[in-house]
Amino acid sequence: MNFQAILSSAPTRFPDQAPVACQGVEGAYSQQACLQIFRAPSITYCPTFESVFTAIENGECRYGVLPIENSLAGSVNSVYAQMFLHRFHIVRSTTLRIDHTLLALPGTRMDQVRDVYSHEQAIHQCSVYLAQHPEWRVNVCSNTAAAARMIRESGRPDAAAISSVRCAGLYDLNVLATDVQNNPHNHTRFICISKAPEIYPGADRTSLMLALPDKPGALYHLLGRFNELGINLTKLESRPIPGTDFEYMFYFDLDASVSSPAFAGLLQELDAELNRFTWLGSYSAV
Amino acid sequence: MNFQAILSSAPTRFPDQAPVACQGVEGAYSQQACLQIFRAPSITYCPTFESVFTAIENGECRYGVLPIENSLAGSVNSVYAQMFLHRFHIVRSTTLRIDHTLLALPGTRMDQVRDVYSHEQAIHQCSVYLAQHPEWRVNVCSNTAAAARMIRESGRPDAAAISSVRCAGLYDLNVLATDVQNNPHNHTRFICISKAPEIYPGADRTSLMLALPDKPGALYHLLGRFNELGINLTKLESRPIPGTDFEYMFYFDLDASVSSPAFAGLLQELDAELNRFTWLGSYSAV
């Protein structure tokens, strides 16, 4: 891991345009996140998170944009699991406000609705509103925008979707109800990943993944080394290593950049000392 | 928080029999976990995790048994979210091996299967096997055992369920394929919760939930206090506080018991110092 080489070979400006993989269909929250990160991305829509990683792996897309954490639901475990498997790099992050609305074909009245479609996470986040309508059947889709598109394509006057308000314009649907989520503080943080490491000017956050020897104080002593450099920890999670019975990896988000020689030096030391140490990337939030 | 009072008022023996709430239907992995914890529980099946908490809140059940962490998928975020809301107490934990099998009505052959039903987590854990059968439609259910029961009740010869092998006997189904999961190291840890705090002899693990002041080193200094007492940390997660925009709570599992006066004293200090501090329980794994 030669940070100096990565830093000196890095382009000075994050690209405006690039081929980017997103899960879902047009109108997905991932697309909105993608448009916050790139000025004019060329987006390939993938059916699953896994297939976003595959599109990057096989060179079809240079980048992928994926949800990593929601302020109500916590970490997106399956994205962390794929990051563990693929060891791609984080090059950007961005945060999006989630604004669930109830959409249906023009002409559909509330009292006609029998079936509601959405992603299981969105259904969970709208449970209070849905409980007020026990007469509705609630159906799970792969993505909130896919639910909206399905309502348009089916032509059904008795069905509605819980999706972003942007899907109303996109799929020519009417808004039956806004702000149907339980909690207005609903934000999702997205990461932009690439296969090769890329560090851009202004990168002020670093993500790490590592395993520690199983002895009391191991984590404490590691945090002491970050503390000596005055580094703030913004996120720390221990997550089971896939394929083991509850051995843990630690995932760190730190307010620190590898452009600091002291911090880069510490990472080099940890890389040499620890069996499993991965620098996931240094990046900025946009 | 008077640990001495809780300890001295605690019954000396964990109950053999009690009313317990579980998510799912008979044959659910939660039921198996419940039978590892209680000799003869009287189980009430609830449709969602949330309704397990409600059953305890309104006194219908004294205990609830819930999955908290899977060795492949990580923490069960929605159970952590409910623990944050309800502040119930953990009184036991247990770990279960997950053994997904493909079940269908007696007489159904593999080449007749058109629809496969299961819980979304199980579908995810069997993605490699399912990808070998692109001719199958994959459908999401609320629970793996509910999928098996539905196959029995529907009488459909073209449908199969991914469930525990125990559901074969329970719902009179045939095993079409065993070990259909991607990874044999598939374990889920369950917790048993109660409304009132209860500590039983042998409790050697403690779970805490707390918020720290947002300044560098806050977590480091807290870990230093655990380290002074020689306490091992078995799990640590920072999770967004529901209703905020990425303010974090820390969740700790520690190899320590409040029957140690030094540790109980430290918890009393933290309770006094920190704005948000919750002792979730001291318990043993069975």
Kindly summarize this structure in a few lines.
The structure is a homodimer of 286-residue chains. The first copy, chain A, has helices at 3-9, 29-37, 49-57, 77-86, 120-125, 127-131, 144-154, 166-170, 218-228, 261-273, and strands spanning 19-23, 42-46, 63-70, 74-75, 89-97, 100-104, 115-119, 137-141, 159-164, 174-177, 187-194, 205-210, 232-240, 248-255, 277-285.
Question: What do you see in this structure?
Answer:
The structure is a homodimer of 286-residue chains. Chain A is an alpha/beta fold. The first copy, chain A, has 3 domains: 14-98 and 186-195, D-Maltodextrin-Binding Protein, domain 2 (3-Layer(aba) Sandwich), CATH 3.40.190; 100-177, Periplasmic binding protein-like II (D-Maltodextrin-Binding Protein, domain 2); 202-286, Alpha-Beta Plaits, CATH 3.30.70.260. In chain A, 30% of the residues lie in helices and 33% in strands. The first copy, chain A, has 10 helices and 15 strands. In chain A, the strands form 2 sheets. In chain A, strands 1, 2, 3, 4, 5, 11, 12, 13, 14 and 15 form a 10-stranded mixed beta sheet that branches. A 5-stranded mixed beta sheet of chain A has the order 8-7-9-6-10. In chain A, helix 3 runs parallel beside helix 4 (77-86). The longest helix of chain A is centred in the C-terminal third of the chain and has 13 residues, at 261-273. Chains A and B meet through strand 4, helix 4, helix 9 and strand 13 of A and strand 4, helix 4, helix 9 and strand 13 of B.
